[in-house]
Q: What sequence folds into this?
């Protein structure tokens, strides 16, 4: 692994090449939230089962126990599945109580490998909400997993943990060095280093370009919900992944943050410029030049006459970059209930305030949404928190069909193998036919809420419920 | 049409009958006097209740064009609704409305300004009021944790300011308990960080004398506190003890002796606060919650518990338990066979009372807050999606008798409040639709006949005869007193047995009286404060092996000066705790709110009397910086807070911090590690407004003539304690604090 670190800059160039082309996505790994830096929720996997049964174990390869609430979507790389959860399935009695946890399982068997646990912040729920665990979906790059802990610390850890029998550095002073403990390479504490005051939970799923890691800081309000205690702290930062040091930062929302910041950045080539695109806490989407952090454009996702918290929304969804266009819907913290939403196609080749000039289309029939788009074959699939899945023409924003799940959606669709997979809070996963004709192929109940989005690797679909991780594969049979 | 008089006369007819059953109680026919109804179980015994209606008017006796988020209560011919004012949100207040049940006409409305609270306008009016069945008085507990008692004609009889008197903390989520009235007591709970033995932050249970508002007891059964909550207690006579049973903020269900607050038993079930109320029948408590369990990763619980135990109950007391159904917000109801409740995503479920087995469930929407009402064999359920259902449950499933959407599909009116039943009608309260400006402020619907159907109330079960044991507990009443130097306070002595049954009032002279940490003397039930100076502590009375205690603060009249040199601590009566310690800057003693990375970072040091008005407070203030963050510092006067923001480089005058639209702000540049002087003055004016003015200048400079910031408040706070305010990660310092009558 140290050797790999030596090669890092070279690999970075290769990885960057990969990031601009997503062919073969989901075939052999799923190394980050969205599977690729553009975050488009599609997979090239084929042979995915249309139905499975958690009771009989039909088409189930393995299942692993997680904590009581799990929001860190699975990532799969180097034969390891990583998820973010809480510590309610306490695996180490010496690490008790409420904590954020990243757990690593062997991709092939579901065998538990290692976990990284983090005590809750003493500053309480305003910064670190009870039992939410770790909601960051790790990024795995060159054998290193990057994720944000519930303590707002960016962690760089060896994806194999100590099971490669090496303590990789530069950080080598781990207190816990058992085979189930994390091998930490370096850390970046966003509260200490850049003064971040995360609201409720820092949850960013890291993204990257070349040698830089990008993440949303989660900076937001204090308990009073009218004060931004740290307006000079950035909304987005870039960290050099060799050194773990700050490369650039931007604090554009300042004290205009409506609530928190839970949208996670996307990266893609737009109009010939590699950009980082981020939905920020003031309801604006901003684009940055990836290597320098230079702000290129900004777009207000709220109508000017909207009023927080009734009709003015925050951005929790992840932007998706597809053919020079950014797609994102706004919404609110699920605690705030349902309400009006807005979905946009934004021409991110424009510069400056592009709220008017960059709006390709605006779809206002969506309700508040915290989900991320799937774009495939000229269609965009977008779930909302009121339980509706919207299928639109990606070029025009014209609705093609909608489907009512009759339950709140926190998760996103995964489009693959000619099908659309989507889970909801009541634990139902619907499998629909992809395309202009609305057709339900099956519906499977997972016996626990589905807040996650299915991902694929090596012909297996990984689906996390609130407290379990399921490996689903056509023809498999779970032995109980 | 029954007029108010006819209801009253019926009351008179019923009164002797009812009085025979419940000493002193005056029950109207089928009143719904508290949130959970006459028996605190969400059940009405009325029959022939509506099976069908429509918001457009079918089977609607009347409706009102505003609603709220809490259930109304009905007593006699009055419906009481606790909600917010509508209109300009820069003037939002909570209000209590008295509405004529016959006609839906508003009889009176009392508006109450909110203060020192993080609960925003749209979550105000969280709790339901409670009516005392003996007097008809109404109790209102606001999101600021102020308890008010109104006479039936709307006159305020008394009020208690828990944030100022007890350091109550009210948070953004808004969760506020609905009070209940039991015997002579109003019972509720609040999160607080008070002075003395209530300094440890946590949830406390309170019993106030329903007639005088004086505190009877404060109980601290919890070892920890997870979240704020609103599990409204029930009261039950169990095994010779009169118990209140409630879900704690510690994931524990607690049974406390209702007369004394002494813990009887507890059962830990969750790692989060309990929001649900319990049900009780035949020595069994039926409890529910929708959060983490202590022993499995499966969330949610429905369980039956043997309620006759004492101490920390264990698994042996659990008759059955069912997990995996998550009724986080709704409280359950039950008939003879089944328990019904609704989970977070609006799925109603039925569970067999014998073994807890899930019998069926049905999805009603996606979001649920309110509780079901069970009446006339029907379930009445409103969802947060704005739908109201009337359902006919059975052993095998549920039939939808009626389903109505309130508002439009694009803009529904969420139903947060639980429906209630009274006198032949169902009352449904909806709240603001999301697009308020194009929608509505919600509604109240009286569903049912134009004419109330007044039938005799069901007979109230005779409480079991009390068997009293020997004296085991001594209670000093009142439990809390605030005096000026030289004043006297007379206490009475009440005796209880080990189970909390009242035995008698004892002549005070029979006990041995003493003072603890308090200047002055106590003898024969009379405490006399020292002639000068302030102090805080306890008056104690010992009778045999039992000792009772009351909390007393003695606070001198204005003017006050504190330079922290002579006295090396902040005064004992401040709600200061560890938030105000003495430190040194440049060799001078100062008051420091130390660097704080805990949830209690924001400190409000409340100095004392609530009834103060017409004064000025000033102080030197100084702030430091850590982690790119400068702290904030300020003063409190008559519930107004003047805050100098370090990061924000601005000065704010806040009547109600969470109501941002009320705040006045000006840019203000100030440096870290530098002393400034702040001054805040409030003047109540003859026109009913209050003029609040603040200024800040560099310490040592001449005081500027002009005020830096001011507000004329049309919904004013007209009284309140002085205090100091500090927030942020960094050290914040005060010195040379002065409080004096306006000059």
A:
């Amino acid at each position: 692994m140290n050797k790999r670190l030596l090669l890092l800059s070279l690999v970075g160039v290769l990885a960057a090449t990969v990031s601009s082309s997503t062919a073969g996505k989901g075939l052999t790994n799923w190394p980050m939230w969205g599977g690729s830096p553009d975050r488009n929720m599609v997979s090239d996997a084929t042979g995915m089962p249309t139905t499975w049964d958690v009771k009989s174990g039909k088409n189930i390869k393995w299942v692993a126990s997680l904590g009581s609430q799990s929001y860190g979507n699975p990532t799969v790389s180097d034969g390891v599945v990583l998820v973010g959860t809480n510590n309610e399935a306490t695996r180490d009695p010496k690490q008790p109580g409420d904590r954020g946890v990243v757990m690593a399982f062997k991709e092939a068997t579901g065998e538990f490998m290692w976990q990284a646990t983090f005590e809750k912040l003493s500053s309480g729920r305003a910064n670190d909400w009870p039992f939410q665990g770790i909601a960051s979906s790790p990024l795995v790059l060159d054998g290193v997993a990057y994720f944000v802990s519930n303590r707002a610390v960016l962690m760089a850890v060896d994806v194999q943990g100590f099971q490669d029998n090496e303590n990789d550095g530069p950080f080598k002073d781990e207190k816990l060095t058992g085979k189930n403990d994390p091998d930490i390479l370096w850390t970046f504490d966003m509260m200490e280093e850049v003064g971040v005051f995360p609201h409720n939970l820092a949850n960013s799923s890291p993204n990257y370009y070349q040698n830089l890691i990008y993440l949303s800081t989660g900076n937001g309000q204090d308990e009073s919900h009218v004060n931004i205690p740290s307006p000079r702290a950035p909304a987005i930062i870039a960290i050099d992944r060799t050194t773990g040091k700050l490369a650039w930062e931007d604090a554009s929302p300042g004290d205009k943050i409506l609530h928190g910041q839970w949208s996670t950045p996307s990266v893609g080539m737009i109009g010939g410029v590699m950009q980082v695109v981020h939905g920020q806490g003031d309801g604006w989407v901003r684009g940055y030049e990836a290597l320098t952090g230079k702000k290129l454009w900004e777009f207000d996702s709220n109508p000017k006459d909207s009023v927080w918290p009734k009709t003015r929304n925050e951005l929790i969804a992840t932007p998706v970059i597809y053919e020079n266009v950014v797609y994102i819907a706004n919404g609110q913290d699920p605690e705030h209930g349902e309400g009006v939403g807005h979905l946009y196609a934004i021409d991110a080749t424009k510069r400056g305030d592009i709220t008017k000039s960059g709006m390709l289309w605006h779809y206002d029939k969506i309700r508040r949404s915290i989900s991320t788009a799937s774009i495939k074959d000229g269609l965009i699939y977008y779930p909302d928190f009121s339980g509706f899945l919207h299928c639109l023409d990606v070029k025009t924003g014209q609705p093609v069909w909608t489907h009512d799940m009759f339950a709140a959606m926190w998760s996103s669709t995964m489009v693959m193998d000619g099908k659309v997979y989507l889970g909801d809070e009541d634990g139902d996963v619907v499998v629909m036919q992809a395309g202009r004709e609305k057709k339900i192929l099956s519906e499977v109940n997972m016996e626990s809420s589905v807040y996650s989005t299915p991902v694929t690797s090596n012909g297996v679909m990984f689906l996390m419920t609130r407290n379990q991780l399921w490996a689903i594969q056509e023809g498999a049979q779970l032995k109980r | 049409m029954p007029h108010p008089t006819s209801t009253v006369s019926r009351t008179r007819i019923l009164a002797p009958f009812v009085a025979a059953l419940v000493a002193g109680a005056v029950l109207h026919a089928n009143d719904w006097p508290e949130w959970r109804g006459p028996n605190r179980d969400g059940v009405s015994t009325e029959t022939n209740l509506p099976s069908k209606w429509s918001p457009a008017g079918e089977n609607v006796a009347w409706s009102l064009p505003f609603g709220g988020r809490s259930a109304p209560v009905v007593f006699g011919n009055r419906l009481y609704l606790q909600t917010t004012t509508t209109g300009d949100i820069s003037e939002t207040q909570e209000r209590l409305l008295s509405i004529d049940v016959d006609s839906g006409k508003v009889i009176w409305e009392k508006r109450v300004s909110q203060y020192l609270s993080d609960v925003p306008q749209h979550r105000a009016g969280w709790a339901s009021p409670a009516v005392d069945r003996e007097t008809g008085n109404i109790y209102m507990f606001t999101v600021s944790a102020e308890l008010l008692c109104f006479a039936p004609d709307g006159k305020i009889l008394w009020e208690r300011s828990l944030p100022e008197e007890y350091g109550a903390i009210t948070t953004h989520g808004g969760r506020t308990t609905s009070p209940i009235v039991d015997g002579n007591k109003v019972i509720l709970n609040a999160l607080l960080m008070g002075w003395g033995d209530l300094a440890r932050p946590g949830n406390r249970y309170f019993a106030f004398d329903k007639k005088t508002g004086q505190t009877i007891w404060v109980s601290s059964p919890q070892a920890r506190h997870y979240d704020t909550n609103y599990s409204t207690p029930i009261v039950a006579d169990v095994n010779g003890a009169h118990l209140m049973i409630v879900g704690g903020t510690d994931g524990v269900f607690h049974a406390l002796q209702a007369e004394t607050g002494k813990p009887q038993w507890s059962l830990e079930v969750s790692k989060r606060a309990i929001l649900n109320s319990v049900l009780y029948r035949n020595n069994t408590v039926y409890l529910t919650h929708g959060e983490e369990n202590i022993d499995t990763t499966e969330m949610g619980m429905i369980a039956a518990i043997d309620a006759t135990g004492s101490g920390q109950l264990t698994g042996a007391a659990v008759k059955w338990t069912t997990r995996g159904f998550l009724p986080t917000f709704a409280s359950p109801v039950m008939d003879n066979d089944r328990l019904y409740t609704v989970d977070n995503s609006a799925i109603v479920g039925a569970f067999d009372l014998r073994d807890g087995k899930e019998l069926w469930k049905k999805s009603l929407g996606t979001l649920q807050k309110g509780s079901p009402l069970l009446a006339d064999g029907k379930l009445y359920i409103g969802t947060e999606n704005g739908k109201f259902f009337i359902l006919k449950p059975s052993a095998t499933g549920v039939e939808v008798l009626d389903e109505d959407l309130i508002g439009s599909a694009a803009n529904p009116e969420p139903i947060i409040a639980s429906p209630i039943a009274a006198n032949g009608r169902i009352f449904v309260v909806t709240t603001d639709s999301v697009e308020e400006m194009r929608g509505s402020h919600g509604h109240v619907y009286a569903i049912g006949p134009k004419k109330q159907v007044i039938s005799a109330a069901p007979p109230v079960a005779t409480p079991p005869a009390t068997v009293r044991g020997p004296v085991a507990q001594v209670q000093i009443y009142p439990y809390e007193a605030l005096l000026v130097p030289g004043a006297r306070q007379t206490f009475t002595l009440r005796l209880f047995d080990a189970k909390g049954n009242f035995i008698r009032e004892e002549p005070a002279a029979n006990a041995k009286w003493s003072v603890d940490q308090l200047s002055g003397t106590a003898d024969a039930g009379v405490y006399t404060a020292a002639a000068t100076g302030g102090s805080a502590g306890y008056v104690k009375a010992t009778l045999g092996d039992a000792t009772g205690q009351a909390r007393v603060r003695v606070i001198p009249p204005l003017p006050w000066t504190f330079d922290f040199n002579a006295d090396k601590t902040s005064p004992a009566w401040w709600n200061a705790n560890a938030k105000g310690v003495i430190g040194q800057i440049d060799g001078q003693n100062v008051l420091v709110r130390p660097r704080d990375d805990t949830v209690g970072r924001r400190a409000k040091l409340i100095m004392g009397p609530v009834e103060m008005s017409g004064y000025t407070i000033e102080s030197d203030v100084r702030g430091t910086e850590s982690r790119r963050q400068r702290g904030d510092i300020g003063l409190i006067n008559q519930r107004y807070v003047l805050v100098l923001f370090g990061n924000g480089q601005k000065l704010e005058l806040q009547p109600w911090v969470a109501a941002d639209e009320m705040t006045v702000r000006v840019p203000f540049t100030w440096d870290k590690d530098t002393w400034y002087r702040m001054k805040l003055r409030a003047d109540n004016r003859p026109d009913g407004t209050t003029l609040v003015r603040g200024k800040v200048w560099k310490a040592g400079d001449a005081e500027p003539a002009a005020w830096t910031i001011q507000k004329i408040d049309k919904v004013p706070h007209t009284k309140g304690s002085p205090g100091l305010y500090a927030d942020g990660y960094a050290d914040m310092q005060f010195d040379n604090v002065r409080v004096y009558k306006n000059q």
User: Anything to note?
Assistant: Chain B has a mean pLDDT of 93.
